[in-house]
Write the structure tokens for this entry.
Amino acid sequence: MKRLILLPYHITTHFLNLTSHREKWISGLGGTIGIALTLYISQWVPAQHAVLIVASMGASAVLLFAVPHSAFSTPWAVVGGHTISALVGVVCAALIPDTLIATAVAIGLAIIAMHYFRCIHPPGGATAFFAVMGGHKIQSLGLDYVLFPVLFNAVILVAVALLFNTLLRSRQAKHIAEVESHLHLPEKYLIRHSDLVYALSEVQSYIDVSEEDLLSIYNLAVQHAHPGETG
């Protein structure tokens, strides 16, 4: 599934301004709770693991709680992206003597791996970076770094996000479903799925908008533009 990640600055700013005050505060509250619980639970892991949480989890919290509908915020993107990137970083740190080269290669290979495993998660790049540049304490963990703190942190954060978003954002999901249930547009305004797939394939890059989201936006726009021709 392809998704759009880059928009002109003025368009991006306009869309962000449409976010309600309630949504902004829910996002901030979610990030606070998510990171707090991740830190709290992680401290109970055996003391020999010196690192309780990776800094890149802070960036993941932004995605999970501020843009929960993004492809970058799916459970598999977060867990898979962090874990695969951590593994790539550990291997590069072990096999490439030069730290600078190892770091650059780790991030490049992490991006490629996330593409192939369909779990692109931008903070994963930081996780790969930290595996190499985190110093002797991190490198001494070896493959343990992949399991703890990375995988452990990611699973906790995703679990908190799923629970939080379900409890506090269920009203939004119901509202969207209700609006879409009342859409009855004439066939001449509808885009065939095959045409949409073709258009997405022509972009030939990762697009952070799902086919379903594009169709929903298109339907709502057509309803607004042709109110007398719907029903």
